[in-house]
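<discrete_fold_record>
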Amino acid sequence: MNLDPKENWSLTIFPKSSPFHFKFKEFWQYRDLIILFVKRELVPTYKQTVLGPLWFIMQPLLTTLVYSIIFGAIARIPTDGLPQLLFYLPGIILWNFFNSAFMKSSGTFLANVHIFGKVYFPRLILPISGLLSSFVNFLIQLVLLIIIMVGYYISGTKFSPGIHLLLCPVLLLMVSFYSLGLGMIVSAFTTKYKDLSHFLAFGSQLLMYATPIIYPTSIVPAQFKWVSFFNPLSPIFEAFRYSFLGVGELLATRLLVSFLVGLAIFYIGLVFFNEAERTSIDTV
């Protein structure tokens, strides 16, 4: 492209020459747009509803109640000696964060094709905005968890949060790598294979049951523990529960492997997303 040096351009858009070419500095330039997209994700969700923002905390509470009845009262799955509400809630709110960010990022191209054909902005802004809106939900539900923990502690329930709480930001970063990486990979493939989007909810549900949310890894028979190594999310969720309640497993080696796998998935997702962005308007 030959540009006239006499012209004073405020923005010059060049085609990406490679799927490995990233312009991360553009995120700061489009920070106002990111905020608008985050608001777009949050406000309509509970607008014109009876309970409004209360659904932010009602959803994990209702989910915990259902799990307590099905897996606690009926299936009698042990909870490492903790009350069921206290045991289930950390895993549920962390899973909500992962699943919400994953679902939003995986629908980037199909849900926003009407925007992509009209105006330019870095497409990666959309999955990032979905992650940030999911993180806002997580923070609200985290406050709920802390309030419930205080209530149980006052009532005499024994659990031991400690210095491992400092590990939580790293665990959230790891969950972000997985949700964004997997979401971007799926969103790239849905530009050509739209029926893949119909499998997402089912696949996500299977992954949830393969993750120690409703059960502790201590009940898994020793001969089957190797299966959990194929789910890199397992050590993250176990470490998150351990950080708040002092029960479960905190295995540094498995967390390091999970971190490296998550970083690799995130980078692969960036490459796939970058490549799909170049042709999405023609294929979606």
About this structure: DSSP finds eleven helices and no strands in the chain.
